[in-house]
């Protein structure tokens, strides 16, 4: 049996300055290698993912990364930095989700190559919260940007997972709750959606027959 070697250490109650503690990362050596990342708290800062992001960047194609996920969500910026590293990772990423996985946590879960859900798994998808301040013109400019940017961001994150009607309702303030069965059904639907999308994109472009026919007709009339 291979022993887990932890690559960082985490104080039980965070650092002395009150900043959030880093998520735990371990490594199990065998023929290739299995990396273990534990996300079990609120996402507050990119610094929580420092070692985890390094692992995702160095993991090779024959390695495996297992993420143990249970979080009520948190900072979009922190989660987005981790997701960016996940998308670039060469290794297979397997996510084990237990208990509550809410808000930004669901965006991380969607990015897994394979997933395992506990019986008590539950997910909450919503549009989150944000704010703007300052002078009126600054407030209005920031609010306008946030509306357009975050709408696009949410639609990209949940593409193929939620219907257009559900996306509109969520962006309008509705919370969407799913249990393990509900999540798995949508995950399979999303997988089929992207498979069909990529197959369509891979097809060679169709020849513009109508245009050629129209050109030939014009030539014949000119003659």
- The CATH first-level class of the domain at 5-126 comes to Alpha Beta
Work out the number of β strands: 8
User: Measured on Cα atoms, how large is the radius of gyration?
Assistant: 23 Å
Classification by helices and strands: alpha/beta
Low-confidence stretches: 11-15
CATH architecture assignment name of the domain at 5-126: Alpha-Beta Complex
Overall body shape:
globular
Elements, N to C (H/E): EEEHEHEHEEHHEHH
At the fold tier of CATH, the topology name of the domain at 5-126 is: 2-enoyl-CoA Hydratase, Chain A, domain 1
What is the number of helices?
Answer: 7
Largest sheet: 8 strands, mixed
What is the CA–CA distance across the termini? 84 Å
- CATH superfamily heading of the domain at 5-126: 2-enoyl-CoA Hydratase, Chain A, domain 1
- Beta-strand proportion: 15-25%
User: Which percent bin holds the helix content?
Assistant: 40-55%
The average pLDDT value, as a whole number, equals 84
